[in-house]
Write a structure and sequence with these properties.
The chain is α+β, with helices and mostly antiparallel strands. It is built from two helices and three strands. The chain has helices at 38-58, 66-85, and strands at residues 9-13, 19-23, 26-33. Strand 2 (19-23) and strand 3 (26-33) form a beta hairpin.
Length: 86
Amino acid sequence: MKENYIYPAIFSKGEEGATEIRFVDFPDILTYSETDDIDDVVRTAQDILALTIMDYEAEKRELPDYLLRLLKYRAEIERRINSEDN
């Protein structure tokens, strides 16, 4: 297992007041944190992400490549900007 992974998380308040935690690259993950302490919410997100990565690796599933997706997105944006300039 690598030492560090980078995956964006989205935090939002749910209807019941709990903080929803979602991961862009793992859309099947939705978890909640009952605390308002952002440090605890981030720790919860890190724990859930670590468990998910361990599951993926145990099942020999390929992890999403966030950085590759980001580079492709950036290239597409630059292509669109360049095409508008011409």
